[in-house]
Design brief:
The complex is a heterodimer of chains A (554) and B (288).
Chain A lengths: L1 H17 L2 H5 L2 E13 L14 E13 L2 E10 L12 E13 L2 E8 L1 E3 L5 E3 L1 E2 L4 E2 L2 E11 L2 E12 L2 E15 H4 L9 E12 L6 E2 L3 E3 L4 E13 L2 E10 L14 E12 L2 E11 L42 E13 L11 E16 L16 E23 L4 E12 L1 H5 L6 E13 L4 E12 L6 E10 L3 E9 L11 E11 L2 E10 L2 E5 L2 E5 L2 E11 L1
Antiparallel strand pairs in A: 1-2, 1-32, 2-3, 3-4, 4-5, 5-10, 6-7, 8-9, 10-11, 11-12, 12-13, 13-16, 14-15, 16-17, 17-18, 18-19, 19-20, 20-21, 21-22, 22-23, 23-24, 24-25, 25-26, 26-27, 27-28, 28-29, 29-32, 30-31
Chain B lengths: L1 H20 L9 E3 L14 E7 L6 H15 L3 E7 L19 H10 L1 H4 L3 E4 L13 H13 L5 E10 L4 E10 L7 E9 L2 E2 L2 E2 L10 E2 L3 E2 L2 E5 L6 E4 L8 E9 L9 E9 L5 E8 L1
The chains are: A mainly beta (554), B alpha+beta (288).
Amino acid sequence: MRKLYAVISILVLISAGSLQAQDLLQGKISGNFQLDAQIYKADSAIGAEDVSEKMLMNAFANLLYTQGNFNAGIRFESYINPILGYDKRYKGTGVPYWFASWEKESFGITVGHFYEQFGSGMTLRSYEERNLGYDNAIKGARIVFKPYQGIVLKGLIGTQRFFWEQGPGMVRGLDGEFALNDIFNNTSENLPRLTLGGSFVSKFEPEADILVNGNEILILPENVAAISGRFNLNHKGFILDGEYAYKYNDPSAVNNFIYKAGASTLLQASYSRKGFGIILSGKVTDNMSFKSKRTEKGSVLDINYLPALTRQHAYTLSAMYPYATQPNGEFALQGQINYKLKKGTILGGKYGTDIALNFSRVNSLDRDSLDNLTPLGKSGTLGYKTNYFAIGDELYFQDFNIEIQHKFNNKFKALISWVNLVYNMKVIEAHDEPDVKANIFIADATYRFNTRNALKAELQHLSTKQDEGNWAQAMLEFTFAPRWFMTFIDQYNYGNDDKDRRFHYPTVALGYTQDSNRLSVSYGKQREGIICVGGVCRTVPASNGLLITLTSSF
Amino acid sequence: MIFKRILQYSLSMAAAGALMVSCDKIEEPFTEKITVDTTIQTSHTKRVLLEDYTGHQCVNCPEAALIAHDLKNLKGDKLVVIAVHAGWFAKATPAGDFTADYTTDAGDAWDAFFGISNVGNPNGLVNRKYFTTSEHILSPPAWSTEVLNVLADTVVTVDLKINNNYNAENRLLNSEITVEFVKPVDKDLNLIVVLTESGIVSPQKNNNAEVGVTPIIYDYVHNHMLRDALTGTWGVEVAKAGTANPATLKKNFNYTVNQAFNADNCSIVAFVYDVATKEVLQAVEKQL
């Protein structure tokens, strides 16, 4: 409660200081709200245990006030108690996020909590991913300074969110971006557009006594810096961009307390014109985990973000084995081609056919030990030597997929897709089990009866000899626009080697929309899963029950 | 003109950056050796409790147990370790390598209360400190800092002594715990007394080849394993706020040691804690 008063008084003070009373009344208030409540029922077959509270709930609401160049906002969050699968440390209710910001001439000021990203995020990215329960908002101050056209300079300082508290490390960052064409006032289309950027990020964390190798205490750097440089070259459908980041010695639980410098290089080239697009990208990451708490291994308090160069699948079974970037080191390549078969051709039909081909592969880095006596990655040493010009032998992940979409007529459209993937369980999930080799087929068709009513049918199949074997999923969704929708899903693990575990996971959902309010109720079963981040594993328990979701905005 | 301005901004930014980056570059050697702690306090030695929340199916747990073991080697009797088998990874399977059930009622209750396996295993508590924040759960690399930090403050307000009387024939144990109030304490304090066992050989999952074979160490030696709580989960009252403390207080516990436990490897662990904050003030361990 004290926090809330503090927030309100700060907002009032700031508003009063920079705005006239009558201006304040002319501002605009907007907001949104989401509530997820789940009522649980034990189901011993699938391993859904009894939840003593019977019902769990996550809720949040954002309130945003805008008046000219002034913005202020708060976010209320409540987890009583957190829904299964969310970190229990979220338990509670409060206002973990509030801010005020304004722009005046070439300056923009933000105080309170904020999200920010420098370049591709390899040195700094704070963001929120509610569905994963992730939030590393920075609490402090940020200044954005635009001294001249095409130049944006940013400076920030703060600490990061750690559930209902702040992490122990202080984060300081500077970023500059220079759009050369704008600076030199030459925006002719015949000239390539070039943008350059650079950033410095430094964290401070007090010394600690960390024991390694039985009887050694680490001599730790209290200040750890990362720097990066980036470019973006853009000309008539061609884009070439890249970033290189370097991090000074940062012994941490994630890298097993080695003192080697970290580095990451990202390079991307793309070309697109009407009906055709191609993207090629590559990334080498070496020892680049950067957290504001050195003993933390879980997915909290990350200062930077290392994007995965793999496709994020939307269909349930294609997304069953998702890749997670390995911050300690990986060599990743991805290519994608999008092509549209022309309208009026045999294969293109009346509306054309969209084809997307995507391939990605991630391997280990090629590493050597420091000398004959030191084991690879030994704590309290430089760890290892990296050969950046070779690819490591171990395959972490590979995904080849093709997706074809065709609209037959005004009423009927369909999509088919095939995914072939290899998933390294030991590296991604820390389970010592064989690599999963899976083939996934998707067929998805939508038929519109009229402008209001539609039926969507989806069939998915995953075949693999590893892990839990084959899965099949069928879904039917009726939409009665603009108010109602109804979905039936059944996920069936019919290929499980253990015949007693060939379960069905059915779900029935009903949704109702009224303007910007949406209520959905679903009843069903969810399978058990294990999430491992940086060597700390927790289970997302199987569940059986009723889920109610309400979203509303104004 | 434009060039000059860009140069100015770039330079001022680089200067500000260099100033702010203030990076500490550490040169080799990166570590300092520490020696075994042989200092003995004349009276009232400060001791610290480390609880390692673990499970036989937790692949990263042997690595954590090794840290606890190394700390114990360095700090000797000043460090009291309890390995609490609780949570999903501690579950016994109906068949296979992990049929043994090492969970206990007290361990399950503590794990649920402190929220440890929900966050993940391995993780631990040092003196159950910081319970009022979300920072009470300490990852294994953070244990040493907190253990050394607690021991650095040598002031003892409440001291504990154990006197065990064990009859190997009828397996009856009488454990007498002496609580000495060295300084007056105006708080609600409880005493928890548990039985731990070391030297239990049983399979353990492992994924760190430096620690042992992967993926399963069949002859893994489990030490400091929590077996039972003689006082129940939350202990017995030894001090009440607003009531004067006696100089000493004796608590006696009569207990029959389970046939399945090897009494030669069993110890009694006692610790006293502040009921309001859950923080442990003193701990002690003694073999049967």
